[in-house]
Amino acid sequence: MGEIADSLINGEFDFITGEYIGEAVGYPRTLAYGRHEYMPPVEKKPTNKANVCITNICKDRGFSNREKIELVAKFLYSKGYKQLPNLSHQYKIIHSQYKNDFKKFLVEQVKQRKDE
Length: 116
Fold this sequence. Notes:
There is one protein chain. By secondary structure, this protein is an all-alpha fold. It has two domains: about 1-40, no CATH class; about 45-115, no CATH class. The protein has five helices and no strands. The protein has helices at about 5-10, 45-60, 65-80, 85-95, 100-115. Helix 2 crosses helix 4 (about 85-95) and helix 3 packs across helix 4. The protein is rod-shaped. The termini are far apart.
């Protein structure tokens, strides 16, 4: 490539107008549109929030991640779910409908663990 093309690619020249805009930064840039270097933060999906919430509830009571999966399945089975949906949907169900009941269920499980 030529020197001008290299300068456009490196960001030394504006890639729309061709004007010199300063030292090379390593990527094409322009002054015509302003600065678009930062993307707004991506919101977490509700299923992720549900997973984090359920994980924190279990960790606060001393349960590991593996135990969490078993406890979630056991809890939903006790609520009448015979065919369990995928794991992220299980967390979403508990988070939206049974959060307080799940906390009580975990308290009972902690008591059972201490009795054994």
